[in-house]
Predict the structure.
Amino acid sequence: MADSTNKTTVKKLLTLADIKVNGKRAQDIIITDERFYDRALSHGSLGIGESYMDGWWSANKLDRFFENAFQADLRDKVSKNWRLAAYVVRGSLINFQMGKRAYKNAQKHYDIGNDLYEPMLGKTMAYTCGYWDRGAKTLDKAQEDKFELVCQKLGLKKGMKVLDPGCGWGGLSRYMAQKYGCEVTCFTPAKEQIAYIKQHSKGLKVKPILSTWQDYKGKTKFDRIASIGMMEHVGPKNYEKYLRRMAEILTDDGIMVLHTIGGNKSIRRIDPWIDKYIFPGGVLPSVKQLASAFEGIFILEDWHNLSTNYDKTLLAWYENFKESYPKLNHDKYDTRFYRMWEFYLLTCAALFRTRQTQLWQIVISKKGVTGGYKSVR
Amino acid sequence: MADSTNKTTVKKLLTLADIKVNGKRAQDIIITDERFYDRALSHGSLGIGESYMDGWWSANKLDRFFENAFQADLRDKVSKNWRLAAYVVRGSLINFQMGKRAYKNAQKHYDIGNDLYEPMLGKTMAYTCGYWDRGAKTLDKAQEDKFELVCQKLGLKKGMKVLDPGCGWGGLSRYMAQKYGCEVTCFTPAKEQIAYIKQHSKGLKVKPILSTWQDYKGKTKFDRIASIGMMEHVGPKNYEKYLRRMAEILTDDGIMVLHTIGGNKSIRRIDPWIDKYIFPGGVLPSVKQLASAFEGIFILEDWHNLSTNYDKTLLAWYENFKESYPKLNHDKYDTRFYRMWEFYLLTCAALFRTRQTQLWQIVISKKGVTGGYKSVR
C-alpha cells in the first residue's frame, strides 16, 4: 500500500500540471501499482523511470504527460533530480565517461543491435536530430535535409578534406563524399558502426577509423569538420581539450559545424549519485560552457537553435520503433526494454518541445571567415 | 630625432605586415615627424592615435594600413595596448562608465552636434551597424534593411508594446511605429537626441524618455525589446543586471534582440591606465561574458554574426564625413578633430574587416519560443 501522504502529495503536484490519475485526456496517467507514489517521491527521477519500466504506471500519451509536467516545473517541485528524468533510461545503457571505457560504452549503446536501429532510424541511419524546417514530411527526408544543411553551412566544395568525428553509422560521411565529392575521414569507437560503414561506403572516398576522439592521433589537416552529436560524449572537463584538438587539425581558413544537444544551465559537477546511476559522465553543455571552451580557439560565426526539430525526430523514431517492435527478437528486446525505450524517446521529445533542452548547430572558425560568414537556414 | 633603435624596431615590425614607410601602396604609411617612432613604441596605442591626430604620420589608406597591421598581429607585437588602438580617439570623447556620469558622457559624444551626425549618418540617423547582406547599395538602404531585419527577428505585430533602450536618434523606434503599428517606448540620456526624436516623431506612437537604463524605472511590460548598440555602454559588471532588468519588463512570451559589438576575448578587468585614458568603463562583451550573463535569465534562440557589415557601414560614414567636412564649422571641428574622427572610423573598419571585432545580433527569450524560433537573415 502507498503511504497516503505521498499519494496525496503526488496527486496535488499532478493537479498543478493539469494531470489526472486515471483520467482520459492525453496527459493523464494510469497508476496500476499504488507503490508508484512512494517510489516517485523517494527515488525521484530514477523511481519514476524504473517504475514505468516495471509497468507500475502508464500515460495515455507519455510525451504529453511530460510536456505538462515540465511546463508546470514539476521537476523542480518533486526533486532536483527529476530534471534528469529523461536520462534515467538512457543513463542505464550509456556510460558517457571517456577514456578507457569509451569503447565499452559505445558498444553498450550503439552496438545494441542494428536490428533495433535500422527500422527506427530509417535509411539514413542518422541518430541525431533531423531538420524539418525545410518542410520535410518524412524522417528520411528530414535527415537528408539535415545532411544538406550541414554541408551548406560548411560551404563544401569538391575535393575538400572533411573530418566527421563521432560519425555513427556514417550517413553524413557518405552524403558528403557522394554529393559533394569530398574526401571524408570519420571515426567512432563502436565496432558495429565501423562494419556498417565499410559495408555501405564501397566506391566512396570515406575512410572509417575505429577510435575515440582522444585516441585519434591523425595529423592530417582538414578543410572542414562536422562534429554532429559528438559533444554530448565529450564531458564538460574535456570541452576545451576537444575543441583545441579540432582546431589543431583544421586548416586556418577552415570551418567547423558543432551540432549538439544543450542545456539551459551550466552543470559543472553533477551529484555523484546521479553521475553513477543516471547519466554517468554525460552532462549537456550550456551556452556558457561552450563559449568558455572555444574562447581564444574559435570565433563564433553562427548559432542556430533547432530544438523543436528534435521533438519531431524523436516522435518519428518512436513511431518506427513501435511499428517494428513486433518483428524484433523479444528474447533480446523484452517488454521491460520496450517500456524503457518508450520512456527514453518520449520524455526526451517533451524536453525539447518544452524548451528545457536545446539542439544547437554552431558554426565556428579559427580566425573569422574573410569577408564574413553567411548563415544558412 | 627618433631613437634609431626604435625606428629600426618599428620598421621591422611594419615589414612583417608588408607595410613600407613612405611607400606608395594603399597600406603604406608616410612619416612626417620622426618622433613618431619613439611615441609609438613608448606610448603604444595612445601614442599612435595621438601622433596621427597631430599629423606626425599618415597612410595612403588608413583602413588598409590597419588591415595589414591587424592581420599580422602587430598589435600584440608592439604592445598589449595596441589592441585598443581603435578606441584611442573614441575613448577620449566618450566615458562609457555608467551611473551619475552617464548623462554627461552621452552628451559628450552624442551631443557633439547633429550638424556632424546628420550628414554622416544619413536620413535614418542610425548610429549602429547597417545591414548590407540583403544587397543594399547605399547607407540609407542598409540602415533601413537593418531596421527591417530587427523587426522581422522580433516578429512584430500591430499594437505590440516595444521598448527601444538606448535609442539614439530614434530611427528604429519610428520605423517600428510607422511600418508595424507598434507602441514604442524609447530612452536615451542624450538631450539633443530626445529633442530630435520629439521633433521627428509627431503623429507616431513613439514615447521618448530622457534616461539611462539604470534610471529607467518603468513597470510596463513589453512584448518585444530591441536593444541596439546599448550593451557597449553597460559595462561588464552590469551585463547580468541589465539583462535581468530587461527580463523583468519583458512579457513571458516576449522576444528580445540584442545587437552589440563584441570582442573575441573576455576582458574582465582592464588595465587602470587604459581604463582612465583610453576606453573608460567600455569593455566589449565576449560570447562567454554574454552567455554567463544571460544564463538562467534568457534562452538563446539565435546568434548572428554580421561583422563585415560594420566594415562597410564605417566606410560609408567616413565617405559622408569627408564629403560634408568642408561645410562644417571649422572652429568647432578643426583639423585635429578631422584626423581624430578619421582615425576612429577607419581603424574600426579594419578591426571588423579582419574579424578582430565582431558585430552580433542575438535573439533571446525567457522560456523558449513555443514551437521553436525561426531565424531570419
Observations:
- Residues 80-98, 269-279 of chain A have pLDDT under 50 and may be disordered.
- The longest helix of chain A spans residues 335-353.
- The longest strand of chain A covers residues 250-263.
- Residues 100-365 of chain A form a domain with the Rossmann fold fold (CATH 3.40.50.150).
